[in-house]
Design brief:
Layout lengths: L2 H13 L2 H4 L3 E5 L3 E6 L13 H23 L4 E11 L7 E6 L3 H14 L1 E12 L2 E13 L1
Antiparallel strand pairs: 1-2, 2-4, 3-6, 4-5, 5-6
Length: 148
């Protein structure tokens, strides 16, 4: 297991206790891709599908984790918060919740860091998908803020 993957999972479980309760695990973590998973059983609803709130939480946390990975790589310690978000529930999830956040562009995060250095706050928009065997089940987009 990579150092970043271990650090991210430990940080999630210590700083955001909900992640332990819903069974979040870090599948992969880099500055380009973060993948989180959560088992269906603690996140199930009355329809035997994943609860919408759990899907939202896993998506928010995948984006949060990407910001964490980028800050860690840059050697920066800052607070990370979600400012606002939109979510589309496209398909029911009847298996392990698998969320992916990709950030191939370095320019967007560089702008975020410049704002952070100048004003003590930076913002970045991130997209997350929850994918099942049937296809993309959830599309999430959120604005994350970093601050001192």
């Amino acid at each position: 297991m990579s150092e970043l993957k271990n650090l991210l999972e430990k940080t999630l479980h210590v700083e955001i206790p909900l992640t332990r309760e819903i069974g979040i695990s870090v599948i992969s973590a880099s500055t380009q891709l973060v993948e989180l998973a959560a088992p269906l059983s603690p996140n199930i609803n009355h329809k035997c599908t994943a609860f919408g709130g759990s899907l939202y939480a896993v998506a928010v946390l995948a984006g949060w984790s990407m910001v964490f990975a980028r800050l860690h790589a840059a050697g920066i310690h800052a607070h990370i918060v979600i400012q606002d978000a939109q979510i589309e529930y496209l398909l029911p999830v009847v298996e392990t919740i698998s969320a992916r956040c990709e950030l191939a562009e370095d320019d967007e995060f560089a702008r975020c860091l410049k704002l952070f250095e100048r004003k003590g706050r930076g913002r970045i928009a991130l997209a997350v998908e929850i994918v099942t065997q049937q296809g993309v089940a959830v599309k999430f987009s959120g604005n994350y803020v970093i601050h001192n």
